[in-house]
Amino acid sequence: MTLTIVGLGPGELDDLSRKAFRTLKQAEMVYLRTAQHGCVSCLPQNDVTYQAFDDLYETLDDFEQVYETIVSRIIEAAGQRDVVYAVPGDPLVGESTTTRLLAAAREKDIPVEIVNGISFVEPSLRLLGIDALDGLQVLDALQIAAMHHPPINPDYAALLGQVYSQNVASDVKLTLMNQYPDDFPVQLIHAAGTPDAVVEDLPLYEIDRSEHISHMTSLFVPALGEMASFEQFQEIIAHLRAPEGCPWDRKQTHESLRQFMIEEAYEVLDAIESGDTDSLYEELGDLLLQIVLHTQIGIDDGEFKMADVLRYVNAKMIRRHPHVWGDVDADDPDQVVTNWEALKRQEKADNGKQDEYLLDSIPKGLPALLQAYQYQARAAKVNFDWPQVDDVIAKVREEMDEVLAAETPEHQMEEMGDLLFVLVNWARWLKVEPETALREANQKFYRRFQYIEQQVRATNKQLSDHTLAELDALWDEAKANGL
Predict the structure, then answer these.
(1) Cβ distance 187 to 200 under 8 Å?
(2) pLDDT given for residue 355 in this prediction
(3) Nearest alpha carbon to residue 358 among 338, 374, 339
(4) Contact 170/178 with Cβ under 8 angstroms?
(5) Mean pLDDT per 10-residue run, the chain (483 residues)?
(6) Number of H helices, E strands in the chain
(7) What SS3 class is residue 348?
(8) Among 93, 362, 412, 433, who pairs with 406 as Cys (CB 3.0-4.6 Å)?
């Protein structure tokens, strides 16, 4: 007993291969996934019985059940006699039942022969006038519709099959708009390979409004271009590190780049605080440069590859969000944080990396203000905390008195440190992140002092020419102006 899967092509009898026609003509029984296909009425009729599965699409709830039922019936029949199963297009291009049948046939030790046909791809290429080997990505629109970000390299074009309804088109466009502009020009291809073929030019946001969408609709997404892909970025960095690349980049090590990672991170913070979104994406690019450069050094030194970096962080994000990818409930952000910390501790225990002490996992290189905040927050989770905020305020007053009572520079520095530490604790009780609060205070001081300088310069005088009272008056002006 043999299972033969035949591709019927896009719809015209002229596109059916001679081998496919001969196979169908010699068969006694041919199963059709669907009779709704242009060349079915022209198939050999003498002594051939055809049985279609179209009724399943109407009686079962979803495609998954339809495909499972088709596969079950085909495998059952193939266990008793030779079976020919015919599908639209090519059996291995967008035909879910084929891959399922191949897997099921392997389990049952049933030989399978594939008779290829013209898929929707070839006539689509002709209509578009493009070469598939120029990097064309062929994808299933149903998979894209179920995603939140498209798995597409935007430096190359993509062809999405099975955009068979306006609902699918709507979901597809929402996913694509996470990467492409809303008005990005795309093309819907309808009935490719038939005399009724139509190519429709329209912006991405309008694709679900097309009146031509049917079970034979595909979507062509041109290359976004202008080096917009992560892959292109990796190529550039790998080139810089190559023998024919840049001497400076080739010289760098993980250790030599440490200061740049910190600097770029702070420049991102500056862009966020300035509210300048153009600067923000530029600074994020500079920070990403450091990550990709470190990764390329790891690749060159045989330490790890980008796939390791991405595999690790992808798995961790899914593992740490069981309320999204699992069955754990988390009704508010606080519960998410609690779950995250518990999972983090369990992972470390499972990997034999449990911290020896509670504060060990807090980075030693954090800015002092942020580190103090993290230390206190971590200690508070095990109830090492003041019972109420009034106790913290009392401690602030106590530390102020101790600063005032200190007599030596060394003692003053120590007591000032204690005062700053308890002020951080007070901020935590007020749910104020002290590092951010101080940075904003710094920015406010910068704006107001800059205003003072601008006003003084307008008088052609120096700051030192003004009294403190005069400068204070200018400070109050800046404050009144909302600076």
Answers:
(1) yes
(2) 61
(3) 374
(4) no
(5) 93 92 93 90 87 92 90 94 95 94 95 96 96 96 96 97 95 98 97 93 97 94 94 97 96 94 91 91 96 97 96 93 88 83 78 74 85 90 89 94 93 94 94 89 91 90 88 91 88
(6) 19, 10
(7) helix
(8) 412
Residue 460 has which token pair? 């052609």
Contact (CB, 8 A) for 354 and 348: yes
Instruction: Please name which of 102, 106, 115, 111 lies closest in space to residue 1, comparing C-alpha atoms.
Output: 111
Q: Which CATH architecture has domain 355-432?
A: Orthogonal Bundle (1.10)
Annotate 172-216 with DSSP letters as a single string. HHHHHTTTS-TT-EEEEEESTTSTT-EEEEEEGGGGGG-S---TT
Q: What is the CA radius of gyration of the chain?
A: 33
What does the DSSP 8-state code read for residue 89? B
Residue 140, number of CB atoms within 10 A of its CB: 15
Among the listed residues 282, 262, 261, the one whose alpha carbon sits nearest the alpha carbon of residue 271: 282
Which CATH number does 122-221 carry?
3.30.950.10
Three-state DSSP class for residue 253? coil
Provide the CATH number for the domain formed by 3-118 in this structure: 3.40.1010.10
Query: Are 216 and 141 a contacting pair, CB within 8 Å?
Result: no
Q: Is the dihedral of CA 93, 94, 99, 101 positive or negative?
A: negative
CA–CA gap between residue 429 and residue 418 (Å, rounded): 17
Q: Which residues contact 111 (CB under 8 A, 6 or more apart)?
A: 1, 2, 3, 105
In this structure, what token pair is assigned to residue 435? 């590092």
Domain ranges of the chain: 3-118, 122-221, 230-319, 355-432, 435-480
Q: Determine the Cα–Cα distance for residues 39 and 22; give it in Å rounded to an integer.
A: 15
Query: DSSP alpha helices (H): ranges in 3-62?
Result: 18-26, 54-59
Say what angle helices 258-274 and 434-457 make with each other, to 10 degrees: 70
Q: What class has domain 230-319?
A: mainly alpha
What are the structure tokens assigned to 2, written together?
Answer: 């043999």
For residue 483, the model assigns a pLDDT of 86
Query: Distance (Å, rounded) from C-alpha 268 to C-alpha 472?
Result: 32
Nearest to 152 by CA among 125, 127, 180, 129: 180
User: Do 230-319 and 355-432 agree at the fold level?
Assistant: yes
